[in-house]
Design brief:
The protein contains twelve helices and 18 strands. It is an alpha/beta fold and 370 residues long. It has two domains: 2-244, 3-Layer(aba) Sandwich (Rossmann fold); 251-369, Rossmann fold (3-Layer(aba) Sandwich), CATH 3.40.50.920. It has a seven-stranded mixed beta sheet with strand order 3-2-4-5-7-6-12, sandwiched between helices. It has a seven-stranded mixed beta sheet with strand order 9-11-10-13-16-17-18. It has a two-stranded antiparallel sheet with strand order 1-8.
């Protein structure tokens, strides 16, 4: 079935078809229509779930944590300052090894107040123990949410997953999406079977005070799970591809086979980069694209090209582009910061960035290029 709708409504549809038992909801632009649509599904009886209207995003994640700990599938969605308000509970969910799935609609952080897209909100959460997917189309939003539950609930992983995509560029833009039947989704994503749960009939202690040595073990276990997640993400993606005809990998390569330069980008900018690469190829330039789909765990070993041009839509003040710094040591790399606060980055801009890199230049585009 083909559905033409916004990424937010597609995200809600994917969540509905994953059959969560608890949904925690708090509104924030540009995410609000995700949880609004889920509320409609619950109200109409199309989704058998407890829909909890909480007083803040911090409470939304706390509700998901509590529900997941009782062994049920959960879902929530947020954006920008809402995600930042969750920060404490994101760490809790990761260390508690709870397979929560959340959508984050990327939006710039204020002040100044800005509702447009960049990736600083989610990338600032990179150390919380959450797996992070970045979608570049409405179709990928749907597919990634379904895959996210399979990854999160895998016994080798048991980590929460965040699926991020650009505010307005995708969240409020309608595109055609191929949606499988509920039967097909159920076959791919069976009912969640937790390896542990909180049960009043069989009480256990979880998340209590621990001495330093066990705490180190908890952290080590989470790191090992994140490393194993690379393999599991690939396996789940390949299985999804065989069943539904679409797969993405950790990194999507586009015309990289003979490329002298490879542009590394994420989310919507990566989609725009494909147009730029097609234009540059017509002019005889050997350039390709490595679209970083999974940011955590970071697939550094899959991003090894002689010359890379990294376009970051997020900044770590005092350090520079986040993806650029994670890739240091992998070859000759040119760093560009672009698109912060929703500044448009067209394929013409990406062509210009490529030309500047060939001249040995880098920096903030177009503000400051050295």
């Amino acid at each position: 079935m083909i559905v033409i709708d916004t990424a937010n409504h597609i995200a809600a549809l994917a969540a509905k078809m994953a059959k969560p038992k608890v949904i925690a909801a708090y509104p924030i632009t540009p995410q609000t229509t995700v949880v609004e649509r889920l509320a409609e599904y619950v109200e109409k009886g199309e989704l058998d779930a407890e829909f909890i209207r909480v007083e803040s995003e911090h409470s939304a994640m706390a509700a998901c944590i509590g529900a997941a700990a009782t062994g049920v599938r959960t879902f929530t969605a947020t954006s920008s300052h809402g995600l930042l308000l969750m920060h404490e509970m994101l760490h809790w969910a990761g260390l508690a090894r709870l397979p929560i799935v959340m959508v984050n609609v990327n939006r710039a952080i204020g002040p100044g107040w800005n509702i447009w897209s960049d990736l600083n909100d989610s990338m600032a959460q990179r150390d919380t123990g959450w797996i992070q997917f970045y979608a570049s189309s409405n179709q990928e939003v749907y597919d990634s949410i379904i895959q996210a539950y399979r990854v999160a609930e895998n016994e080798e992983v048991f980590l929460p997953v965040m699926v991020s995509y650009d505010g307005f560029v995708l969240s409020h833009t309608s595109m055609p999406v191929e949606v499988p039947s509920q039967k097909e989704v159920d076959e791919f994503l069976p009912e969640f079977k937790p390896s542990w749960l909180l049960d009043v009939e069989n009480p256990i202690t979880h998340g209590n005070i621990v001495p330093p040595e066990p705490y180190m073990e908890i952290r080590y276990s989470m790191e090992e799970a994140m490393r194993k997640a690379k393999k599991i993400i690939k396996e789940v993606d390949e299985e999804y591809g065989k069943k539904f005809g679409r797969s993405y990998g950790l990194v999507e390569e586009y015309k990289c086979e003979d490329a002298d330069y490879v542009i590394v980008a994420m989310s919507a900018i990566a989609s725009e980069a494909k147009v730029a690469i097609d234009e540059l190829r017509q002019r005889g330039e050997k350039v390709g694209l490595a679209r970083l789909r999974v940011f955590r765990p970071f697939p550094k070993e899959e991003l090894r090209y002689d010359k890379m041009i990294v376009i970051d839509r997020a900044i770590s003040p005092g350090l520079g582009g986040i993806v650029y710094n994670e890739l240091k040591g992998n070859g000759e790399i040119y760093s560009f910061i672009a698109g912060l606060g929703g500044v448009d980055v067209s394929y013409r801009d990406i062509e210009r960035i490529y030309e500047l890199a060939k001249e040995g230049k880098e920096g903030w585009y177009p503000t400051e290029v050295r």
